[in-house]
Design a protein that fits this description.
Mean pLDDT of chain B: 90
CATH architecture of the domain at 214-406 in chain A: 3-Layer(aba) Sandwich
CATH topology of the domain at 214-406 in chain A: Vanillyl-alcohol Oxidase, Chain A, domain 3
Number of strands of chain B: 10
Largest interface: A-B, 73 and 52 residues
Strand order of the largest sheet of chain B: 4-3-5-6
Oligomer: heterodimer
Low-confidence stretches of chain A: none
Distance between the termini of chain A: 29 Å
Mean pLDDT of chain A: 95
Structural class of chain B: alpha/beta
Radius of gyration of chain A: 22 Å
Amino acid sequence: MDITAELRKIVGGRLSVSPSELYCYSSDASQVKGMPDYVVRPKSTDEVSRIVRLAYENEIPVTARGAGTGLAGGAVPVSGGIVLDMSGMNRILEIDIDNIQVVVEPGIIQDALNEALKQYGFFFPPNPGSSAMCTIGGMIAYNASGMRCVKYGTTRNYVRDLEVVLADGTVIHTGSKMLKSAAGYDLTQLIIGSEGTLGIVTKASLKIAPLPKTRKLVIASFRSAEVAGQAVVKTFSNGVIPSACEILDRVSLQVLKRYDPKLVLPSEGDVILFEVDGTENSAHEAAEQIIEVCSPLALSIKLAESEKEMADIWAARKLVGAAVSRLDPTKTRIYVGEDVGVPIKKIPELLRKAQEISEKFNLPAMKYGHIGDGNLHLALFIDVLNNDEWDRLNRAADLVHRTAIELGGTVSSEHGVGAARAEYMQAQWGPALEVMRAIKKALDPKGILNPGKLGL
Amino acid sequence: MKNEVKKNEVKKETVRAEKVNGNEIGEKNSKELPFEVDRRSVYKCVQCGTCRSVCPVFEVVGWESANTRGRMLIIKSLLEGRPPSEDVLPSLASCTTCGICAAKCPAGANPPEVVEAARAQLVKCGVTTEAQEKLKTAVTTSGNSFGETKSRLHWLSDTERSKLPEKSDYVYFVGCFDSYRYPEFAKKTFEVLQHFGVTLLSDEQCCASPLLRTGFREDAEKIMEHNLERIRKVGAHTIITGCAGCYTTLKNNYPDEFRVISLPEFLAEHLEELNLKRLDLTVTYHDPCHLGRHNRIYDAPRKVIQAICTLKEMKNIKENSRCCGGGGGVRIGYPDISLELARNRLEDVPEAVDYIVTSCPLCVRNLRDAGGDIEIIDIVELVAMAME
């Protein structure tokens, strides 16, 4: 069968087999690579369904892709086949304030959705660092979260219903606009985080939340990342739940200052940014409490003085991961071992071990991340033209992953497993991985949906 | 079987990757090919996709190859040995080099520079678009980007031409657009600048910007040398130009022998001497990419406008300003994309303004071609109104 001709019948000119185009779809922001044979940009559920059916009948791999900002190779077609570029399906179909939800297509960009919701006084809380470019579809597929999930939860907590195209092209709905349901398996939750291995999301109903009246930011610095971690544990055990709780170690701090020298950040130590939100009174009270709890451990502690100061710090924080070349133009940040997480009590230990690994392999590193939920983004950076540094990098990343598992944590807190972390699934899940494989087999017997991912 | 599903087939590769699904992307061929761009500047890109959210061409086209990350990837593949072919042109020739990606890039990469370098390499490999070739032929044979054969100073009378000082500290570099498409801008600019003893080059040619942006570096050298000789002959220490493209080229690509100043900067420096009257107008200002983001000239045009009338800003301004779509050879190579960009830019115009003011004739042209109800004028026209 002439697959190109068949695909063209479905999507017309929104098909490409040009080698240059295919190359652009052969990677995301990870180190995983794989060339697709076709790229299509569907515009409707019907088109997706027809494409997937064609793929099913001809046993062609299908890999869905949003903005390609993933850090685990989830959108990379490691077995070739068809890449479904879903970013053109980007409409907001309904803003239903009465039911406190929105219905969107998967290609909508997170920030664009929040911009549209702002006028109603609502927002979609999960906010990855890539919120300016990542799609909601990608966020659902990888259960993305971000800086505010410590209080608001992850994408998983905000999905009410999904329209999903299954492996044979069948279209199903997994939920409804209901707040709750006790009828049957929760297929919505099964699809979230399944990385496009069980179905392709073509529509999503999302719960939204009222925008807080105010946000305040406490900036505290500590003599070491480990002490900073202790301050976080202490804050939580004193009953304060910040809306964001981020660590920036001293290297990250240097990078941020290089990125924007006007940023008001401490001049020494490792920093924790505690954000609290709510009413003026409740936020003020929570901020005061954090200052009181952390002061005995801190080198310095202060409240951000203006909304602008706060906004600038958050904007820079969102970009810190990629900004390391500002510190040393010969170094590039490589996203490996960058998303481990551990139970909150183990954070100081994880920070210490991460530092030891960085020193053991003689690789400079930034340590930053959502420490409030135990998620550390370890940013290792190397000279990409140096083969020895690549070797050390991969060995260091491997050790980071294994350390997280030993500490009872996870190899990925929010970026996903994809192909980059597939080899650790057995170690993390043991026999539970067989259950996942059984589910995969039941829903995708021919194994066409995003093969080579999740260690399935 | 190519489409066979291979379970758990995971490829974790580095920049030294050799084979991906049958496609060679290793270093094997790189020594045989003349394709060389500064690798460090390419590898700064971590493929985070920040540029994807701001690239104006991608907004219109929708394919990954039409955004900066895609272009950087394609350039990377060429560096790693993929033979240069026409297949890369829709991506690499469609960048307006507006630089918003560079302004936003967290890693500090400078994609317009990389794209221009890649274009130069493609030219060496003989991989060019018809539009590129047409533009090159026009500039190299006629000395201007339009292939016009009439005198560049046709907008001056013979008497005016004969009175041009042979020596001066100041030269007004007119540029192709103002010479041939907007001679009224040239005339008004010259009238203003004449008060300051400015002269014109007797045999000005294209500044070489179109050649440099589209990769014809060797041809550009020759034409730049031609202009340099004329400037040296006049003995000027300052070159003033009203074209953003000429400005960035004279300032950043010519030898550092003289001061280059944009018309808005010159006007802003001499506001008091211009005796401008206040006009009952509200205007908005479009930052040309090559004046704004590329050279950080944001305040001078605003200072001039505010000395004359009320300025109401566009939705995206200064480093966030969106491209008019005219630059980087896109207007000539991909006119539909170019106009779509201009239409998108017009959406940023605030309500209730009398004019859209800018300081680049290419922006004027592209924005005018995109239609819209509000007249687009050059800053010199606003100044001329205030001098009447």
